Amino acid sequence: MAVATAHQVQHHAPPQGFLRKHVFSVDHKVIGKQYYALALVAVLVGMVLSWLMRIHLVWPTAPIPGLQWLSKTGAPGGVMTPEYYLSLLTMHGTLMVFFVLTNAPFAAFGNYFLPIQIGAEDMAFPRFNMMSFWTTFLAFCILVAAFFVPDGPPLAGWTSYAPLSAVGSDAGPGEGWGQTLWGLSIFVFCIASLLGSLNFIATTLDLRTKGMTLARMPLCTWAWFITSCISLLAFAVLLPACLLLILDRVAGTSFFVPGGLVISDRLQPHSGGSPLLWQHLFWFFGHPEVYIAILPSMGIVSHILVNSMRRPLLSYRVVIYCMMAIGFLSYMVWGHHMFVSGMNPFSSLMFSFPTLVITIPATILTLIWLGSLYGSRLRIHTASLFALAFISMFVSGGVSGFFLAQPSVDIYLHATYFVVGHFHMVMGVASLFGVLAGTYFWFPKMTGRMLNETLGRIHFWFTFVGTYSIFMPFHYLGLAGNVRRYSAFVDDYLVPLIPVHRFITIAALITGAAQLVFLYNLVHSRFRGAPAPPNPWECTSLEWTMPSPPPFDNFGGKHPVVYHDPYQYGVKSSTGDFLMQDSPEQARA
Amino acid sequence: MGKVFAVIVVVIALASAVPIVTHHWFGTAIELRPPQDISTHGHAIDEQLSETMVEAGLSFLAAQLLLAFFVWKFSSRGPTAEIKTFPGGAKWLVIAALALVGTEMLALGVLGQRAWATVYFTPAKPDALQVQAQAGQFAFYFRYPGADGKFGDLHPDKIDEGNSNFFGLDPANDVDSRDDIVSGELAVPVNREIHLLMHAKDVGHSFYVRELRIQQDFVPGLDLSVHFTATQIGKYEIVCTQLCGLGHYNMKAYLNVLSQEDFDGWLKQKASEQ
Predict the structure, then answer these.
(1) Which of A11-15, B48-52, B60-64, B177-181 bottoms out in mean pLDDT, i.e. has the lowest?
(2) In this predicted model, what pLDDT tens digit does every residue of B154-187 receive, in sequence order?
(3) Residues of chain B by 3-state class (helix, strand, coil), percent to 5
(4) Which chain B residues touch A457 with a CB distance below 8 Å?
(5) Tell me, what CATH number does A110's domain have?
(6) What pTM does this model have?
(7) Residue B54: how many CB atoms within 10 A of its CB?
(8) CB distance B30–A497 less than 8 Å?
């Protein structure tokens, strides 16, 4: 196995001045924190959008104070129009999937901890790394700009199906500049993600320190590595797809628009394109994207669970193989989003089987986590509570996949709230629980301050019970055939379901408000929190060998030597029941 | 605190199961299940749905309860408690997962394939009643071929909603289109197979009738079709499930299942109105 030697390691001098230190920094730790901050801003905006949507759904005529300032035409007098609802829905989905679920568990924590956990001084290409972040930031600015264009933000959903998204403003409000900016934003985001993924892969393969074999990497490092491989292939497909979409919109091409369409009484000047082509390209990215969101959290949760259980997992290798299997299979299942799209019905079966097969590695992972809990010395703190809640949420979101993986059942459940419940639980909430677990776990390392544990637990209980209260009922509504992406429920059969929606809205408002506790904890503890010791959780991996926060060059110009696998817990050593990876000491049984 | 977590997980797991078992929202009359099936193929989908519900429900409960139990039991043991390994270790867990879940998924896959096949692998019978459905922002229109049994050609440039030419027919030059009957509702005779030819006028839409257990997208540029037999007289909502623009939530029509006599009368009346 290749091991980094001194001359291979990237050196760069400590930065001087505020801009180089905190803004245009090449330090992976600063970039990691920048990604985290961006994700935090995106998640807050996304959450507020979801509040607005939920309020509108159940109190459609109630004016929302201040909303008219955001958009005079979209919410005259504070009451949003149907098109503005769809715009908020589109922006919510796009912000959450791209700027939160891709950025937070993968880019933010990955950037900060992957180099440290393998004993490197920085990423393989620090300038590329800085460029990845600022390109992502540019993509974010472009997307936010779409809020303020005259004909309104895009409304075709985060999936932006053509031809609605491809024919321009004839298709209605939000389909003018807003949609073009959406395409441009995602295009730019893809470039950033490709740069980031390459950097992660190169760093993992080339910059591991002496003794850090692949089989000694912590599970979160493995997860970031596998995710970057998935991400490299997935964004490489979305990038040209977005380019083609933009060309259809501004250059008169017809990649996704067939001939003979009459929109707003106008025969469209297109011919020969295929709307299904967009769906195939989008979902070829879209399904792996689900795993780009969840795999890093699986890694983070595994890492934190092992530490909290004070024992190694039942099998380290099986976890890695499962994550690899999930990553590999994620490329064979995109068609399960398209069972009722008019795709050849025989292909539906071909897509259904690998989708069902993904259940196997997912179940094995869950059983390994559960089986490892058995006979452990589980320590309960906010980080481990979120990690345990991840397992619960992953199971809940996962089992609804049994339904949607089958084309026959999907005929009834497709495009209902069942689907919304499913993906919010498994890729949204579960993944965010991983991020929150990671935050409570690594905040001391990143800032040198402990987070307040009491506030952490308050945050946990509200979030855990709250997210279940929001997303479980989505499944029931789906079983009743409640269609998603409706700005109001006017159909005869939907009106009786509105009380359930009201319950969900109230749960969402309370759960959202509880996030303010988290926010307060972050800000307050950053400045006033108790000082963090180097290794508060008695963890074994390399980031805990250095002071909190780590110095600029991580290991002080030295190259750590690794002697152990990452999870030497439940042993007897001079430090207690664990052995650091870089400790030459041999554990006693 | 670990014990609190365990209790909450158990409460969540059991509470989550209540609406699934009772089919109602906690003690109210709000029904949370698919409505009565009125198609000849729907029972296969319903059986598959129930089967999956049992398997998913059991997996869900088993995993949540196990999680709660282990956290309850092992979260307050103190730093010196003996560390034990799950009997059999990872090997047996992997084997169990492969065997149990593998069989479960294979069963669902194979059975599900049969249900899917009843909908999509059998073509419509030649004597099925052909109806064309057109979806456009934000309305459905339905066209019956009239006495000659032939649909007139579509001319997108002739679409003129102001003059009720929703499909773009050209009766002046096209004989086949002169007796075509266009309607805003989908009236069908009961117990007769309907072959619905789907045409999208502008962007993507979808045809969803819960009671029929049918959902199929309208894809611009693609000639798609579905076929079904409605077995119960009544009026049912057809809704759009593919995001199509600002009026998406309000894009609906009715499926009106009539007796054969009533249907004949309806058709005659519509023909006289054209």
Answers:
(1) A11-15
(2) 999 999 988 899 999 999 999 999 999 999 999 9
(3) 40, 25, 35
(4) 1
(5) 1.20.210.10
(6) 0.95
(7) 9
(8) yes
